[in-house]
Amino acid sequence: MYHINSYSDFSYNDWKRMLIDINRFLKADTAFMNRRPLRYSVVLDADPYALPSVSSIEGKRALRLSDAILGSYHHNEVKFAELNLDLFRMLQCLEWEPSGSFYPKRLVESSESSCGEAGAAVPKRFSYIEGLVDHSLPPNPRKAILYRPAATQFISVLAAIWEDLAPDGILLIYLSAAGKATSSSSGLPLSSTEQNPGDMQAHDSVSDGNSISPESSSRDSPTESRNLHEENHHNGSRGCLRLSSRGNEGLNNLYPNDIIPFTRRPLFLIVDCDSSHAFKAISGAEMGETVALLLSPTLPSPCAADADSTSQPNNGSQFTMFLTAPLQAFCLLVGVPGFNLGMDAFNKVDEMLSSSFDEWGKMLADSESLDPVWAHVLTDPFLRRLILRFIFCRGAISLYAPTSNKKEYLPECLPPLPESFRPASAAVRHAIFRISWSLDVADNFHCTGDNPDGIGSDKLLCAV
What we know:
Elements: H1 9-28, E1 40-41, E2 64-73, E3 79-80, E4 83-84, H2 85-93, E5 96-97, H3 102-111, E6 113-115, E7 121-123, H4 128-131, E8 142-147, H5 151-163, E9 169-177, H6 197-207, H7 214-217, H8 222-236, E10 241-242, E11 253-254, H9 256-259, E12 267-272, E13 292-295, H10 312-315, H11 318-324, H12 326-334, H13 343-366, H14 372-375, H15 381-399, E14 412-414, H16 426-438, H17 457-463
Parallel strand pairs: 1-5, 2-8, 2-9, 9-12, 12-13
Antiparallel strand pairs: 3-4, 6-7, 10-11, 13-14
Helix pairs in contact: 2-11, 11-12, 11-15, 13-16
């Protein structure tokens, strides 16, 4: 007879460790469970077949997300097997949620049976792989999950996937890791006076919607182009992602310059770390295709309820949560517990946010100042959703009183988005105002006194 005591101590400890990890993983993200799927839902999200066409790329190619590399390296984080919270959320965010007609069909197929010769019911055989695929939806992008990869491992996987990229495809790279901008000699953090003036200048150019992107400025003259290239090379060798627990050893670090050779094909890069702004060095140094960059803040915004609720080890990255579950991230930011927000209230606010995203998507598609980098990916439903959620994230953090006018809390994007989508714009302020008022946290934001439409809170409540 088989007894559980026959397991070796090693196997027992492994199973115990796994159960502990599962328990921590389930407890880490229970505040908003079963509210809205992380995957792209054709019922709740914009119709992928009816996205507005982008006027600025008429007659030119539109890119689709065909492949993605999702990499993470953190310590003492909530995980299960080789999947932490950030990787899990981003993985789900880049997949289709099966449509409503898919579930009844699967239920019928699984309950169908045929009778054998003796009259006994014989379950119908079907492929389990086929049973997981909704053929009414496009195929999911291919994804490579890299949990705590070495720098060389990441580069080799990137090279293999990059080589097989479809002609009309774009590769999404998501990197979440610890990192710090350090000098090449001492390895100590750079002070504000030691920073390269070009870094501060580039930062100001991103914050100003009227500024010229580094790529366009590099075309002015050969001298300026050479100076910009040297500056990018210097900055790109400073900040890095630490893919190791052994400190700032160069062999274990991933630098912006490591990615530049792969810019011969379209890349959509998301960097979530405290030295993410070092990857601005990629912009203007590309070798063929301009990279779309979404960069996290260098510091997570303090949460109104509990500062630890948005910390990396406990609940994943705040920036990644905004990109994958924006309303949940907003509620955690302002200290609205999930269990205090009823289903009806959540759905009501979620409809407001979805309505704002639809409006912003149409405005982006019609914008004449939209950079071609964003225009080429705006018709892809997954990338479009990430761009809109980035706008919401930047607007919410910028207008949030504790982080207002503090650059270290603000995410950045390169090339810059149109000025009409800056946090101070009417469209962004109005959306943040309506959502914050509905959650009764409007006093925490700087958009309550002079809302964009000039309407009072009593009229807004009636409109909501």
